[in-house]
Amino acid sequence: MGSLTVALATFNEEKNLADCLESVKNLADEIVIVDGSSTDDTVEIAKRYNAKIRITNNPPIFHINKQKAIGMATKDWILQLDADERVTSESAKEIQTHIHEKNDVNGYWVPRKNFFLGRFLMKGGQYPDFTLRLYRKGKGRLPQEDVHEQAVVEGEVGYLHEPLIHIADPSFNRYLLRFDRYTSLIADEYQEKRLKKNSYQFIKHMLVLPTHWFLLTYVRHKGFMDSWQGLIFSFFSSLRFPTAYFKYLRKSKKIGENH
After folding, report:
1. Pair (128, 154) in one structural domain
2. What are the helix (H) ranges across the chain?
3. How confident is the model over 8-52, as pLDDT tens digits?
């Protein structure tokens, strides 16, 4: 009972997908990919690795397509990856060891090393960055409600030690694209929750939350030890709070004007 499906959701990932699939070609018994109608060579690259491919739309909550890929899996275990992640040889050996063990563990938290503007962030609360990605078929699922959500696994879960490599932000342009997408999704969540538009929330999002996040990551969690990249990460990630709140206010105003 140790066969493995590697499951991915993709959209315009031609620059990342080949390296990702190359890293799991000797680990996976099958590769399943749900693609959100990519306009580049993503699907052609997937075909080279004999992936089972389903083409659909590209919803803002990317976990919707990830869950579709999880649902396509036919093997005993599922490893859910993003196209910008890589499985090292050490991580592959550890995964193989655990999925062949006879125990009651239904899932595993997997550490990640995040690559940011030329270096891996090892401080600032960014490592080991555990994410719940490996689980038995039928025992793990994604709620599909939040951009930063984790999988939900029935029963016992454990922890792996060897990290995945996450090529998150090799350039600042890529970081800004992800920043824009995530802050827009947060603004949508504010809209759904009908977050109050008052002076308390304004001060909270403009000053309190960003200041707290910066001090937490850069000072308490020693982000300063990651050189200038640690400073850039802490500063710009703290800006997601005011940015998302401004987007929410602008969106609310437009909705009000249309009514």
Report:
1. yes
2. 17-24, 42-48, 63-72, 89-99, 172-193, 199-203, 209-214, 227-238, 240-258
3. 999 999 999 999 999 999 999 999 999 999 999 999 999 999 999
